[in-house]
Amino acid sequence: MAGFQYIVKDAKGLRVEGTIKATTMDEAIDKLTKEGSILISVKSTSEGAFKGKMTLFDKLMLTIYKIRTGVGLKTLVFFTRQLSTMYSAGLTIEKSLSNLGKEEKNKKFRNVLIKLANDIKKGFSLSEAMELHPGVFNPLYISLVKAGEVSGTLHTIFDELAIYLEKIEDTKRKVWSALSYPIFIIGFLIIVVWILFYFIIPMFAGVYESFNADLPGPTLAAIAISNIVREHVFLTFLGVLAVCMGFFLFYLSDKGRYIVDAIILRFPVIGNLMENSIMSKFSRTFSILMYAGVPIMETMELVENVVQNAVVESAVRKARIMVKEGYSVAGAFKKTKVFPPTLLQLIATGEETGEMDSLLKKAAEFHQKFVDSVIDRLTSLIEPILIILMAGIVGFIIIITYLPIFNLGLAISSGMK
Fold first, then answer.
1. What does pTM read for this prediction?
2. CA angle, corner 38, sides to 35 and 40, nearest 5?
3. Which pLDDT score, from 0 to 100, does residue 213 have?
4. Of 171, 213, 296, 324, which sees the most CB atoms within 10 A?
């Protein structure tokens, strides 16, 4: 006999979660409904929680597919909020999707909405129709919609999902606003350094060559790099592209991604910012999934897929296995030594009181406030630090370029001998 995870509401309206043995899914449903419970979710224990690992090629193809078919988070946030409003106002899902499809300006997303509406006309549920567009709707989104369909609370789920996505989009926007200036300065610095090596250093190299003087080691190295940049522009470009592609493929691998994400979390200030941003996303996702009545094992799997950091993903995966073996959720997360004490305490309290969703929501707000405060500090500190860094690098290149001129008299005399 197979095992099936279930979530039901009993005669008193209380949420009950557990596992039942049955030969088939239909038999499991019959057993649960005969007890007078309202069925929310039933899923085979062999599904979802422990899937096989994707190969590097699979990950590459999935990334390309998502880039080709995906839409921006901002577009998805706006869509979810509009769908929530229309559905709450009494329009059917099919009618809401048709109206949104006619008004959508993004051609790629408009085609998705039209296909969703057509699939629902054919008899598909909304979650089933969304599963056909994995580049647009992630497993978390689909699972929440499915939970809303089964429990009859789709209007509430849409509203919670819209709020959730708005929070995630707001956090992402704030993090990128803090990182956009450094990225711009680093890009500008690369252009300045390239101009120095391509135009300025060769001019000085010609002058030094006419003197036939012995040049200092740093200056010779700068001239050699300049010659490579000038004479092998295409090869240099290919080399940079190869390095970037190599890093991308390395990051796609499980070990490579873990190493890079671990390094990011150890960065001063930036690591702290990323950690609190991840914990805010983790808590908010966990909260909305618990509120929607998604089984704990599936909840942990979905959370693992949305935190987007290999170190935290590995910790959630280990915790999920420990929970399956009988550990409490808080105890399992504590053993991973990745999650902060405040969050662990709130999870433990939530398990004891049955209010894990509301306490995790508070944890998300706590970490979000920390992210906001770090971003405010970064905004004021990062500009002078980057200016000093840029001045230091450019200044160093100029100094090694002018180094022979500091002893120009000796260089001229040695060249005339």
1. 0.66
2. 125
3. 62
4. 171
* Token pair belonging to 117: 């509406």
Q: Residue 50: its pLDDT value, please?
A: 36
Backbone region of residue 295 per phi and psi (left: phi > 0; alpha: psi in -120 to 50; beta: other values): beta
Which residues lie closer than 8 Å to 348 by C-beta, 6 or more apart? 328, 330, 331
pLDDT in tens, 292-351: 888 888 888 888 878 889 999 999 999 999 998 889 999 999 999 999 999 999 999 998
Q: How far apart are CA 152 and CA 262, in angstroms?
A: 41
Q: pLDDT (tens digit, 9 = 90+) per residue, 364-373?
A: 889 988 888 8
Which is higher by pLDDT, 109 or 60?
Answer: 109
User: What tokens appear for 305 in the block?
Assistant: 């897929």
C-alpha 215/C-alpha 407 separation (Å) is: 10
The token pair that represents 78 in the structure block: 């706006």
Residue 406: pLDDT over 70: no
Long-range contacts of 379-388 (CB under 8 A, 24+ apart): 379/178, 382/178, 382/181, 382/182, 383/181, 386/181, 386/182, 386/185, 386/186, 387/185
Q: Which residues contact 169 (CB under 8 A, 6 or more apart)?
A: 73, 74, 77
- Residue 301 in tokens: 């799997």
8 Å CB contact between 4 and 43: yes
Burial class (CB in 10 A: 0-12, 13-18, 19+), 374: buried
Between 213 and 343, the more confident residue is 343
Q: What is the pLDDT of residue 47?
A: 42
Predicted confidence (pLDDT) at residue 51 exceeds the cutoff of 50: no
User: CB of 284 within 8 A of CB of 364?
Assistant: yes
**pLDDT mean over 206-223:** 76
| Contact yes or no for 49/324 (Cβ under 8 A) | yes
